[in-house]
Amino acid sequence: MRYYLIAGEASGDLHGSNLIKGLLSEDPQSRFRFFGGEKMLQASAGRGELVRHYKDGAVMGLGDVLGKAGYLLRKLSDCKADILSYNPDVVILVDYPGFNMKIARFCHKRGIRVFYYIAPKTWASRAGRNRQLKKYVDKLYIIFPFECKYFEAHKIPYVYLGNPLLDAIRNCPAIGESQEEFRGRCGLDGRDYVAILAGSRSGEIRRMMPVCTELVERLSRREECADLQYVIAAAPSVDVEVYRKLVPPGLADRVKVVQGETYPVLSHARAAIVNSGTASLETAIIGTPQVVCWSTGAFTAWIARHVLHVMDHIKYVSLGNLCIDKLAFRELIQEDFNVDELEKEVLRLLFDEEYRDSMICDYGDICTVLGGDGASNKIAKSMIQNIL
After folding, report:
1. pTM, entire model
2. Fewest CB within 10 angstroms: 80, 96, 312, 326, which?
3. Which residues pair with residue 140 across a beta bridge?
């Protein structure tokens, strides 16, 4: 069969790649065409074609969307034309709702089957999209257990077969690498370090890094942190110089940038400062004590709080906390994301063993509710059954 997948972010590329592996396992003669990234291209094993890379024109926040409106419209138009030309058996939309909901409507009107993989987070905002999901999507595949109750309440049929992140992390070869091998390969010495995941988009990186580097300066003056190192896990889609330019020259010996090694960076870290998103759930699965940080531009924050009422709909912003409906790890959101609060929390993560143990225990609960191994293959098999 012929599959057309659309992923617009690094996390979508990861999930899309694992889904492609599952589809190939169940349907060895399958062919793929996709908007995505290197992971999806590699997973397709010569049976797929990358039409456009997700990092081209990546945006964050309403202001960024408005600034790149012309590009996004061209991208949308090109995608529609390419789908018609390819004539797939199904279009599989991977997250990325701002773009993919438009594609769902387009395909539905032309009689093209649509599967939505990783549902839009309508439980947090834009609940009006539920009506579109009912109308334009043939099968909705969700990956978080807390979404089941929500979509049942809104009478939206769904399929839940577990979360593919468990497989992605457990099957990553670098996770099994020894600490000595990892440090030697990445040029790190034997000191403990704090991992910093500042995000993969320019806006979030610019907001995260100044607070994090100020924290490094403060901790460097504390005796108990004198030997501590800091490792920035740079996203593969971002030039490492974007991160390095935000590190003051005086901290260059303490702050290292390692690109494309997020999982091993996390697995060997003493603690992690994580930009909210999929990375916080990955950190929980890997088992590294963390604090989640999130801030956005003033205009986007105003939209979230006063128009979308996000904070009225959900208790937490982190997927791990949402999974167990409990604050397993602290969230520093918008005004709370400042160096004073961050310093307090990082010191607890580093030195409060009871606090660390409690968090890791909660991580076990998170992994349990996410389901067992093999989610990607189960989802792929379900998709094929729903096409035939």
Report:
1. 0.84
2. 312
3. 116
